[in-house]
Structure formats: structure tokens, C-alpha cells
Amino acid sequence: MDLITSNAGLPPSSKRRSAFSPTTIQALNEDIICTIFSFLDFVHIIRCTAVCKSWSKAIDKSKLLQTLYHKQRGIFGADFEISTSEGFWKRQLQDLAISQHRSCLHAGSVDIYQWKGHFDGIDKCKMKMGLVLTGGSSKVMRLWSVESYKCLAEYYLPHTGSLIDFNFDESKVVGLVGSHICVWRRNERKNIFSSQGGQFPRGACMCYVDPEAVVGCEDGRARVFDMYGRKWSRIIKMHDGPITCLSFSDDQLLIGGSSFGRISLSDLSSDQQVARLKTNDSADLSTLCYNSRSHILFSGSRAGRASSWDLRMMRRLWEVRVSPNLLCSIQHMRDDISVLAVGGLDGVLRLVDQQTGDILSGCIMDESSRKLYRSQSPHLTVTRKKGIRVSEDARIDLMPRTSRPSINCLAVGMQKVVTTHADGYIRVWRFSK
């Protein structure tokens, strides 16, 4: 087992091994824990604070964060006893980590690690805690470590329909399979619950926040499912046309995108519509992403346009043409208010400034740079390629399709972006100084 589990996200070059885990480390005193953590850099220390409460508490109480912060700032011999509010040093290091994340995505070197994750195409992916869940046209979802590229778990679909959407947390996986909401325990392969089917027209998307899962349907209504009560509880009218994408805000607002560039916001507690937004180009919306730190909503359309909305003021901030083709996915790293990752039909991974909509960079693969990478899994072949930065005015149509396979979905982590593709491949784009 890695010294720090996959939740903490050690880089693939790390060769440290230990019998330690979050459970066994709890039996050690805090001095020993901090001695172990002192071998890590500040980015990985920040990741460790998110693994479990005992790790976070030990790191917060030590002087490790202060020491790392002063090293990053080039300050030596400083007085660490200065009174500060709880969590001050963590916030300072988080800001430094996010600054480094932005710098690497904007101008750093790019290495791409890829492997065949499914025999069929991969339509969706979700990433949390150093783990990525993938699924598509096959009858199985797979949970992977983003650091070791190992498949950690498989979740088999019931024979009730195709996989449409899914998400996961620390204890469970929730998926929309045909017209059923299915729930799996994270440590079990077979689903523990499947809702009654045939309760609504075809669903196109799903999101959930405990205890409710919401399905966006082609009749413009959102169906709410109570996962604890195991029943459909209510219907929310959002659009006249199909709901194509869904998201949640922190204050219980359900956000639904539809055709003709329309966005509807409804209060999940009262089922009342709060606001309606509309893009300039009136193209069908294909993806939504909400930033809880900045309260900004991002949308992508089938016409290749991305838009930004301030939900506190209910006004549009910017709208730009990012790609000549369909945008399939827009995402950002949690707590980052600087960079968006955008992927779609043309296969270029674009990095966009969240504040202005300016395209910071575009990336494709260098097909001539293929190298075998020694995976920790003996049954998995992982290859490494170099990424190439392309200019904003470059002729995409002249670039070979093998260097830019269409991106069906993507997820963003610290200094990395995970993309999934129609050929069943998973690619981890790692950005470094």
C-alpha cells in the first residue's frame, strides 16, 4: 500500500511503500504522523488534509504547514508562534497550491498517461479524492486510482437499460440506468437497490445530493427520487423542451439546461422556479458546471460556445466561442476560481480563464512520443505520451485525428485533467513546471 493512500494523490514517480493507512495511522501519536508527512511537499500535504479528520487534525496542530509555507515564501527563521486563526496556514498553502495548479495548466509541460479502460466507449467520468469512476455503453462501471492507474472496483449494471449518468461519494455510487435509479455500496459490486422503472419519459441526465437524486427528462420536467424512502417524491417543471444537463448550487438550487440556450433555476425545497437565463446563440446546452466558491455557473453548448453566469446577480459575465464543434464537458478543480478545462468533439483539451473566458491554452497529443509506462497492475498496459500546446489560431482541421480523439467527458484535479473517449481509453493529462 502507498505511504499515502490513493485519496491523497501521490505522484506516479513516488516509490514509497508502507503498511500505513488512515485507519492504522490513527493508532500512532501525532508526532510520528507529522514525521511521516514531513517527507511530502506542500501540494500533497494539502491533499492529505482532505483524506480523514485525524490526518487533518494532526497536520493542523503541528508546525508542518507553517514550515512549508515559509519555505515556499523563502522566509527563514520566522517566529511560528504568532497567533493566527485556526486553519490559517492551511488556507495559505491551499492558495499557493491553486496558484501552482493554474501556472502548470497555463504553461507547464504535459505528460499523458493512457490505458484501455473499457472495451466499448466511455461516455462519462467523475473524479473525487484521487479516484475516477468511468462508464458508458458497457454493462459495468469501473473505479480507478488516478495515481497508480489500477482498477479498484467494478459495479455491474442491472439488465434494465443503458447507463445514462452517475456520480459517487465516500460510501456509494448512484446511477441512472434506463428509467431506474440504482445505488451501489462502494465496497460491493452488485447494486443494493434499483427503483421502479417506467415512471417517467426518457431521462437524459442525473445529479444527486443526499437524500435526493434528480433526473432531467425529455418532457422538460425533473423527477425527484428519495433515496432513503426509495420512492419518487415529486415533479418539478423546468422547461418546455428536454432537460439536457443538470447541476446543483450550494443553496439548494436545482439548475437545468435545455434547448435554445435556456437555463432554469428552481428551489429544491419549494419546487418553485427562481430564475430563467438565456445564452445569446440559442444553441442547445450540453454541459453545466457550478463553482461553489465563486457562485459562478458555466455552460457549454452544441455550437461550441461557453458562457459564464453570476448566480448572485443572475447576470451573464461572458460568452465566447471556444470551439467550432460541440462542447461535451466543462469542469474545474474544486475551490479553484481561475481555470476551466473544456473538451468536446474536436478533441482539443482547452484551458479557459474562469474570470474572462479567454483561452489560455489548447493541448493535443504528440503521437510520435509513445512510450510504455510500467503500471502497478500486471494486466494493464499504460503508455505515456507528450502533450503539445497549440495556439488559439491554429488550424484544427489540419491536425491528425489520432492526436486529438473526441473528448466525451473530463474531470479536473490538482495539476491534472482526466479525459474519457469513444474508443474506451482513459487519459490522464499531467501538468508540471
Helix and strand arrangement:
Elements: H1 22-25, H2 30-37, H3 42-48, H4 53-61, H5 64-73, H6 88-107, E1 109-116, E2 122-128, E3 131-136, E4 140-145, E5 151-156, E6 163-168, E7 172-177, E8 180-185, E9 193-194, E10 203-209, E11 212-217, E12 221-226, E13 231-237, E14 243-248, E15 253-258, E16 262-267, E17 273-278, E18 285-291, E19 296-301, E20 305-310, E21 315-321, E22 327-331, E23 339-344, E24 349-353, E25 359-373, E26 382-390, E27 407-413, E28 416-421, E29 425-432
Antiparallel strand pairs: 1-26, 1-29, 2-3, 3-4, 4-5, 6-7, 7-8, 8-9, 10-11, 11-12, 12-13, 14-15, 15-16, 16-17, 18-19, 19-20, 20-21, 22-23, 23-24, 24-25, 25-26, 27-28, 28-29
What would your notes on this structure say?
There is one protein chain. With 433 residues, this protein is mostly beta strands. 13% of the residues lie in helices and 44% in strands. The longest helix is centred in the first third of the chain and has 20 residues, at 88-107. The chain is globular.
List keywords for this structure.
mainly beta; 44% strand; 13% helix; 433 residues
Strand order of the largest sheet: 22-23-24-25-26-1-29-28-27
Radius of gyration: 22 Å
* Structural class based on helices, strands and sheet pairing: mainly beta
In the predicted model, the low-confidence regions spanning at least 5 consecutive residues are 1-21, 76-83
N→C terminal distance: 28 Å
Mean pLDDT across the residues is 85
What's the shape? globular
The helix content, as a percent range, equals 10-25%
Query: How many helical stretches?
Result: 6
Instruction: List how many beta strands DSSP finds.
Output: 29
The largest sheet is: 9 strands, antiparallel
Proportion in β-strands: 35-45%
